[in-house]
Write a structure and sequence with these properties.
Chain lengths: 445, 262
């Protein structure tokens, strides 16, 4: 508690790390502490802009699922799901139950791959002061192997259903290019049974990690579905009581542009709630708002891990991610067991001038897409709001709190803690535009 | 890659404008990862490790295209620190999908996405790494094939040429026995022009190849374009889009587009 004792000493201190590692993309962070008070906490994103919303103008609408997948190599399916659902709404297409089930399965594959990657390779090393998964494996050899197997199973779902792990090619507006046969999906069954046990073991493993004591109240936003844990459809709800159709997303949430970032920041329109309209999407929000919809083993795992119904400690997001791994394995297993291909591989409809919107659950949180399309089948304009641009203001609020409550730590340790605080939210900077540089400044007057 | 008592290969993995998918391919080698790490030191691989060691590196894998002044400078430093430089993926080898900006009014493009365009610094063109520094080997794909990536690393480690076949996607279709989507259905397919490596994925799923592995060295793009126009009635606008997506700036694709009237 050095800072408390030195209350009378006035100074500014600057923390700096050249590049934040183990995140997807390129960014930086500045924290300025003046006289023991955090004055500024900025997550700067310097990933070069790739201008997807503009390059899609005039392209054929059928290209959107493949093109938007290229926004992110870790969560391409999320882009494929939001774009197909939005474009189907524009064309008035209703997909068949078979297509719906397969899309949930595909999304489960991506959740397993992405969550296992983040949990084990990017996030877990933070709790033990390790640089990477190889160092972590020296401490936890079997647990790390477990996670890699899980990740591989997620990728296997993507391969069987989508053709390949990164940028799958079997997804199109209206459905799929080709439906898998029952026997092709059944090949996943044995692996998924093992994966579910590996996920349960992972919950047990991560729930015993040493968590810093931090709690923050934050408005949580998630997709919500009355009958199931959300993936592809539902209402957008918040912990403050918001409940809207995804069509109304843009009237409630706005993106603003700040000079320190190549990603737009999303806020709630009225600046409502705490922290000037900041809100959080992702596993913590989904679990708090939809936890009662989790299947039985995922629920039991959360209880056994002593996870409260609303988890306010962002460092425990790793436990929530593990619980979602159990969910994704259970759900994938259910779909594989029940699968009988019925109906066409895709539903077609004539082009028309129309607007379509959709929000689906990327592993990192709500992903909103809106398209205006023309009668010749081209895209007139579109808007894409990725989860990380929505989370940027909330991540900055976390940084202020973590910096303020850990000022007693030695410089290097606090810097590491701040990087850790960013990784809690699995930021996908390629998505938000993209290595993070942590820079903490303490000033003295 | 093991078996010889040799110092570890010092590996750097660097990212420019891209989606991260090609470097993720390394982490997607779940079965081979720890064997790989017995031969390779992650000297500078920010996505996977916060331990960053200074160069020189035995091999630098470079993902992404150059789109900013800062990145123009950064690639020179990386080249200077790397004994071998290998570009991985469509962005690094041909500019990527973000090269669709080339020839457009980039100022207007930026203004259409960002409310305060003054905060954004970006170049008029998205260019491949080879436009800036000498490249020792180019691996194609959007994303790359992870087994080909492993082969390239093995080749560097063993100081030999990578065994990556220089044939087209058509050869892979024939090898798999997949019926030709162009001949049997008239589907516009870039398979005859496109570098192999994906195992003819799209035709296997009943769709035409969209060229994400870029043009194969000896392709005859003009002949394919003429055939698609005349024998299958594909409109120029469709062919132009097809040739201008993930590897649109690669010269064979860019040349073939010139004969289209869009």
């Amino acid at each position: 508690m050095r800072e408390m004792k030195n209350k009378t000493e006035k100074r500014t201190i600057r923390f700096e790390v050249d590049a934040l590692a183990r995140v997807e993309g390129e960014g930086a962070l500045t924290v300025v502490v003046h006289d023991g008070v955090v004055e500024e906490a900025k997550l700067r994103i310097f990933e070069p802009p790739r201008l997807f919303e503009t390059l899609l103008r005039g392209r054929f609408l059928g290209e959107a699922p493949d093109v938007t997948a290229r926004i992110c190599g870790i969560c391409p399916v999320a882009y494929q799901m939001s774009s197909t659902h939005a474009l189907e709404q524009a064309l008035g297409i209703t997909i068949t139950p078979t297509i719906r089930a397969l899309r949930r399965l595909l999304y489960c594959g991506e959740w397993i791959e992405s969550h296992a990657l983040h949990l084990c390779m990017l996030h877990a090393p933070d709790f033990f002061g390790k640089h990477n998964v190889a160092e972590l494996a020296a401490l936890f050899p079997s647990e790390v192997q477990n996670s890699l197997k899980l990740k591989k199973t997620g990728n296997e779902i993507l391969r069987v259903l989508g053709g390949r792990e990164i940028h799958p090619i079997n997804i199109r507006v209206g459905g799929f290019y080709k439906l898998p046969s029952q026997s092709e999906l059944r090949t996943l069954r044995e692996r998924l049974l093992l994966a579910k046990d590996q996920a349960l073991a992972t919950v047990k493993w991560v729930s015993a990690f040493p968590f810093p004591h931090v709690e923050r109240d934050c408005e949580l936003v998630s997709l919500w579905h009355p009958d199931e844990y959300p993936l592809c459809e539902g209402k957008i709800v918040s912990s403050a009581g918001l409940s809207i159709d995804p069509c109304d997303f843009e009237t409630h949430f706005v993106e603003t542009h700040v000079s320190h970032s190549n990603a737009l920041h999303a806020h709630q329109q009225n600046g409502g709630g705490k922290d000037g309209g900041a809100y959080l999407v992702g596993p913590l929000a989904r679990y708090a708002l939809c936890g009662d919809k989790l299947p039985v083993e995922a629920k039991q795992a959360a209880q056994a891990a002593k996870l409260p119904p609303v988890c306010k400690n962002p460092f425990q997001s790793i436990v929530v991610r593990a619980v979602e791994l159990v969910f994704a394995c259970e759900e994938a297993l259910r779909i594989v067991n029940e699968y009988e291909p019925q109906g066409p591989a895709f539903v077609d409809a004539p082009f028309q001038t129309a607007r379509g919107v959709a929000a689906t659950c990327a592993p990192r949180g709500l992903l909103f897409h809106r398209y205006d399309v023309r009668a010749d089948g081209t895209i007139e304009s579109c808007k894409i709001v990725p989860p990380t641009s929505q989370n940027q203001p909330a991540i900055e609020a976390d940084l202020r709190l973590v910096a303020q409550t850990h000022l007693h730590l030695p410089h290097q340790e606090l810097t590491a803690r701040l990087e850790h605080a960013i990784r809690n939210h699995d930021p996908c900077i390629s998505c938000a535009t993209h290595a993070l540089r942590v820079e903490v400044v303490r000033t003295k007057t | 890659m093991n078996g010889v008592d040799k110092p570890k290969l010092r590996l750097g993995v660097f990212k420019f404008a891209s989606c991260d998918g090609c470097q993720l391919s390394l982490l997607d080698l779940e079965d081979e990862l720890f064997e790989l790490l017995s031969a390779v030191e992650l000297s500078n691989f920010l996505e996977a490790s916060s331990a960053v060691l200074p160069g020189p590196y035995d091999v630098a894998l470079v993902e992404g295209s150059i789109t900013t002044v800062h990145d123009q400078e950064r690639i020179l430093e990386i080249r200077a620190s790397a004994k071998r430089l290998v570009t991985i993926g469509a962005c690094a080898t041909s500019g990527g999908i973000q090269a669709l900006r080339n020839g457009a009014n980039v100022g207007e493009w930026v203004a259409s996405v960002y409310p305060s365009p003054d905060y954004i610094s970006t170049l008029e063109h998205s260019t491949p790494i080879s436009a800036h520094v000498p490249v020792d080997y180019e691996l194609f794909g959007c994303p790359v094939n992870k087994h080909q990536l492993l082969e390239v690393l093995s080749a560097v480690w063993q100081d030999r040429k990578p065994r990556v076949r220089g044939v087209s996607v058509c050869s892979e279709c024939k090898a798999k026995g997949t019926p030709c989507v162009l001949v049997t259905r008239g589907t516009a397919c870039l398979g005859p022009l496109t570098h192999a490596g994906c195992e003819a994925l799209c035709p296997t799923y009943g769709r035409g190849c969209f060229g994400c592995y870029g043009p194969q060295n000896t392709c005859n793009a003009d002949a394919l374009v003429t055939h698609l126009q005349h024998a299958h009635g594909q409109p120029d606008v469709v062919l132009s889009r097809l040739l201008n997506t993930y590897a649109g700036q690669a010269s064979a694709f860019a040349q073939a587009r010139k004969r289209l009237t869009t």
